[in-house]
Automatic annotation (TrEMBL):
A Pfam family: HTH_DeoR
GO MF annotation, one: DNA-binding transcription factor activity
Protein name from the UniProt record: DeoR/GlpR transcriptional regulator
InterPro entries registered for this protein in UniProt: Carb_Metab_HTH_regulators, DeoR-like_C, DeoR_HTH, NagB/RpiA_transferase-like, Tscrpt_reg_HTH_DeoR_CS, WH-like_DNA-bd_sf, WH_DNA-bd_sf
Keyword Transcription attributed: yes
Highest taxon above the source species: Bacteria
UniProt keywords, alphabetically: DNA-binding, Repressor, Transcription, Transcription regulation
UniProt domain HTH deoR-type: residue ranges: 11-66
Organism: Roseomonas indoligenes
């Protein structure tokens, strides 16, 4: 049995590196990754099989590629992607919440980072969410009241969806919606999951301030369903300034762009 070379990255670090590589290149080769990591090709092949089972990558002959427009990685896989960037975005988004605000928060790895950042800041607020990671991140924080939407549990997203979820959200009037998305194009935020898109729309409909939390690796990515037009948003919180065409479209739509600073 081939042993991992001393100093070679562990399994979780390799998974994160593979996903990060696919943020810049549409395909990766097993041989290239094996040389980069200092491990065997069989080890990388098993890594790709694991990520493929999560929906994070698509297996190809000799490597892996990005997933189809109708598929996105599950919550666990996304947690390994752009972790530092998403933490910055979550921290920046938390500064937008006024004490006493009512905030709707949808399911996603970046919105869960937001909930954790809000809890760490000690801001008193009411959160309305369909996300169990958001509940976990915020539920024990003093000053945070958390209302959880009912629905059918969807394990890959660790979230609740369905007609009951939508009806519950529409009972409330909130101050701010904090949502994520699978991608962002000139036409608006997109999502690979129709059930998630419905929840996002319900939250956007109930809030005067509508904030999209999105890392720059999702710029230009169009998925199965458009959630809303750009003009439905009031703010975008991201880690890098959008490219000129997208920046111009956001400006025309009146969307304020907040670039989270490195700390």
């Amino acid at each position: 049995m081939a042993r991992r070379q001393e100093g070679a990255p562990g399994k979780e670090a390799r998974h994160a590196a593979i996903l990060q590589a696919l943020n810049t290149d549409p395909t990766v080769r097993i041989s290239t990754l094996a040389a980069r990591f200092g491990v065997s090709g069989e080890t990388v092949r098993r890594d790709i099989e694991t990520l493929s089972a999560r929906g994070a990558v698509r297996r190809t002959y000799g490597g892996a590629s990005v997933t189809h427009a109708g598929v996105q990685p599950d919550f666990q896989a996304r947690e390994a992607m752009a972790g530092a960037e998403r933490a910055r975005i979550g921290n920046a988004a938390a500064t937008l919440v006024e004490p006493g605000a009512v905030v709707m928060v949808d399911a996603g790895s970046t919105t869960a980072r937001f909930a954790g950042a809000l809890a760490a800041r000690g801001t008193g607020a009411t959160l309305i969410t369909n996300s169990l990671p958001v509940v976990s991140a915020a539920g024990d924080a003093p000053g945070l009241r958390v209302l959880v939407a009912p629905g059918e549990f969807h394990a890959p997203e660790r979230a609740l969806y369905g007609a009951e979820t939508d009806a519950f959200l529409r009972r409330f009037s909130a101050d701010v919606a904090m949502i994520g998305a699978s991608g962002l194009t000139l036409e608006g935020p997109t999502d690979a999951e129709s059930r998630a898109a419905w929840v996002k729309r319900a939250m956007l409909d109930r809030c005067p301030r509508r904030v999209l939390l999105l890392d720059s690796g999702k710029f230009g990515r169009g998925y199965l369903e458009r959630v809303a037009e750009l003009s439905a948003l009031t703010d975008l919180v991201t880690d890098t300034a959008p490219p000129p065409p997208l920046a111009a479209a956001l400006a025309r739509a009146g969307v304020a762009v907040h670039v989270a600073e490195c700390v």
